Fold this protein.
Amino acid sequence: MQTQEDLFKLGPAVFTSRLFVGTGKFSSAEILKQVIEASGTEMVTVSLRRVDFSNNDNTSLLSAVDRSRVTLLPNTSGAANSKEAIRLARLAREAGCGDWVKLELTPEPRYLMPDGVETLEAAKVLVKEGFHVLPYIHADPILAKRLEDIGVAAVMPLGSPIGSNQGLQTRLFLEMIIEQSNVPVIVDAGLGTPSHAAAAMEMGADAVLVNTALAIAGDPVQMAVAFKMGVQAGRMARLCGMGSVANEARASSPLTGFLDAISS
């Protein structure tokens, strides 16, 4: 198997990397730039609230992103309802960020749970306007299908609350979404270790998105390398076909006959 042939098709684009990276919480633009390079990612999310499009010096967030190689995925972080999210998406397009948008609506500040009703309403409008919409949702199989039906480019169910590093707490529902989905499934939020990312890929996710686990690591750049390897390992295991789980032991070598054979 040649992994370089395992391309990831998302909307009108094709990627070789299945690791998306968020750009929040990093200590400097230089560290973020190194993380993007080390991770091998080809798509990064950026919150429009934090971008100053008039600032092009080497300390700005945008200076860390080589847009000749990496696609910007503006997100509507901070939007509390569909109207605010739609407005942010349109502003991003006018600012030259293209037609991609990560639809993120989190009206309550404590747990930052996505609002499925408002997300669906906003997605209907933005898909009609030609955006490639990637909605961030709870791990809700019914909502995922409804979003797929209206034409989103992918669904992004959470593994656990944003920034919590708790891993795949929604595993059962993620498996349902992956089993039924006809669009890419990108597991987003809560992935705290490379093993979480590998588990998501082994489960059949098409990609994962990571931010906090990289930004707050003791060595963000090396952690980016570790996540890159975790995603690749999980994806390769999925493609290779994993063995079934058994309730009883299965000997890897014969337990009988050998001693009889050498003593005869």
